[in-house]
Amino acid sequence: MLSRKLDATLPSRYKWRHRVENLFQRIKENRRLAMRYEKLDSTFAGFLALALLKLEVC
Predict the structure, then answer these.
(1) I need a surface site. Which of 26, 30, 42, 52 has the fewest CB within 10 A?
(2) Burial level of 14, CB count in 10 A (0-12/13-18/19+)?
């Protein structure tokens, strides 16, 4: 059985998890990121930053 204190934090955890899952779903709309065509980590990180910027603007 969960204590009341722990039980009160669960909705906020689910809300945070939902937001993170939605973020990854929106990132996966960019096939280039989902398939990770870039071989270098720095190139992938740069394209990820551009995709996140695009999500913020739109």
Answers:
(1) 42
(2) exposed
- Which residues have C-beta within 8 Å of that of residue 55, sequence separation ≥ 6? 23, 26, 27
Using a cut of 0.70, tell me whether the model's pTM lies above it: no
Tokens of residue 3, six digits? 């204590």
Instruction: Mention every residue, 6+ apart, whose C-beta is less than 8 A from residue 23.
Output: 55
pLDDT tens digits, one per residue of 1-55: 555 565 566 777 888 888 888 888 887 777 777 677 778 888 888 888 888 888 7
**The tokens of 16 are what?**
């945070």
